[in-house]
Amino acid sequence: MRAIRLALIPMILMAGLTACNQDNRTFGERVRDTVDPPSGPVERAGRAVDRAVDRVAPN
């Protein structure tokens, strides 16, 4: 039971991060998604996580 909970925690975090700021993509992000679209749900989630982290992290 504990292993199941530990496996669910990262999935819940990723779902929360991918739900944030989907509509606020920059022009460059929209161009990249048009020219090189994500090849599947994992890549799409990875890009969304990268964008969410980049917006939260201080530069």
UniProtKB/TrEMBL annotation:
Signal sequence, start to end: 1-21
Protein known as: Entericidin A/B family lipoprotein
Disordered as annotated region, ranges: 30-59
Keyword set, alphabetical order: Signal
Top-level taxon: Bacteria
Organism: Rhodovarius crocodyli
Regions of compositional bias (Basic and acidic residues) in chain numbering: 44-59
